[in-house]
Write the structure tokens for this entry.
Amino acid sequence: GAVVSQHPSWVICKSGTSVKIECRSLDFQATTMFWYRQFPKQSLMLMATSNEGSKATYEQGVEKDKFLINHASLTLSTLTVTSAHPEDSSFYICSAKRDRDPNEQFFGPGTRLTVL
Amino acid sequence: KNQVEQSPQSLIILEGKNCTLQCNYTVSPFSNLRWYKQDTGRGPVSLTIMTFSENTKSNGRYTATLDADTKQSSLHITASQLSDSASYICVVSVHWHEKLTFGTGTRLTIIP
């Protein structure tokens, strides 16, 4: 149990376009999901906390108008990178919390974004 | 400032050998410490999770230890296999807080 999926697994887009990444909890409901970004040879950096039915909470330095997060259901959160630029190229990973495991986060497989 | 430091940064060992990875943290108040394995291009997968009162926890060939007094943890891998090649990340959480503090990881390479 506690499987988290992401779609797509990789995406290449042109500079200036927008890209949507989906994060789904497949076998449990997730009131809270998290979005991370990971650059090569670096650790995960939390971008924002996504709560179902409310606005996301963004970490300092993360532009909320650029990284739009929607958590419309208990099993789906989406991250939209708007007007993507090459410096947005990174590995984006989501995680989800399950109510019965308040101390655990279950990570998705990640999405590799490359902006040309 | 809450920090998690790992050593070594990278490690190369022969298949079948054992190895130990280190993690030091300054996170307070401490809630729990987890070790994750992250294959290249994949999300982290949990190996072990330990709370303040736990000194050791095993998961197959992986054994994690925790010394809450010195704020140190180690991950010992026994009889390494080629599939153990990955990054191993130490993650510490603050009591009653959702955010995790990630270490920079140890890149482990197993060679035949």
